[in-house]
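quick q for whoever's on today - can somebody do inverse folding on this one?? i tried earlier but teh output was garbage lol. C-alpha cells:
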C-alpha cells in the first residue's frame, strides 16, 4: 500500500471512426455477422471493443477478451481467446509492421476458416492507424483492394 495516493494511469485513445459512429457499418454487416477490427481485439487491444461500446453494443466485433478457462479441464485461465491465424497476421502487422513477403495457399485457407469462424462480414482498420501502410499491404494481399470510407 502506498503511503500517499498515486494518480491513476491514463492514456488517450483515438476517436471512434465516423464509419462506426454514423452507422455506415450497418450497410456491410448483416444479421449474425461480425466485424473484424484491426488490431483484432484481445487484452491490450480494445479499440474495436470501444467501437462496439460507442454503438450501444450494436456493432458485433470478432474476438475480444475475458478472464476464462483455456484448458479443457479448467486448470489454466487466460485473458485472451486462443490465437487464430488471421489474428496473428493482422496483429503482427498492426503491432510490429510485420507482413509476410507472400501469402501461401495454406494461409489463405486458414484466413478463410477464421472469417467463417467469426462469421465476419468485413475487416476494418483506421486509416490513421500508426502502421496503416503495413495493414493495408497485408489486407491487399489477403482480400484484394480495400475500400476507404469514414476514416477506415
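ok took a stab at it. sequence:
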Amino acid at each position: 500500500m502506498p503511503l500517499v495516493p498515486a494518480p491513476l494511469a491514463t492514456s488517450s485513445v483515438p476517436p471512434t471512426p465516423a464509419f462506426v459512429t454514423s452507422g455506415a457499418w450497418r450497410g456491410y454487416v448483416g444479421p449474425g455477422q461480425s466485424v473484424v477490427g484491426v488490431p483484432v481485439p484481445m487484452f491490450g487491444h480494445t479499440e474495436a471493443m470501444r467501437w462496439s461500446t460507442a454503438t450501444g453494443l450494436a456493432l458485433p466485433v470478432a474476438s475480444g477478451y475475458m478472464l476464462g478457462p483455456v484448458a479443457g479441464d479448467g486448470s489454466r485461465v487466460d485473458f485472451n481467446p486462443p490465437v487464430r491465424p488471421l489474428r496473428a497476421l493482422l496483429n503482427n502487422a498492426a503491432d510490429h509492421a510485420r507482413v509476410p513477403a507472400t501469402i501461401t495457399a495454406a494461409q489463405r485457407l486458414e484466413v478463410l476458416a477464421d472469417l467463417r469462424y467469426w462469421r465476419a462480414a468485413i475487416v476494418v482498420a483506421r486509416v490513421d492507424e500508426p502502421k496503416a501502410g503495413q495493414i493495408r499491404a497485408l489486407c491487399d494481399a489477403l482480400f484484394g483492394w480495400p475500400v476507404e470510407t469514414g476514416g477506415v
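fwiw Residues 39 and 91 are 5 Å apart (CA to CA). also The helical segments are 18-21, 47-54, 85-96, 105-118, 132-143. so keep that in mind when u check it
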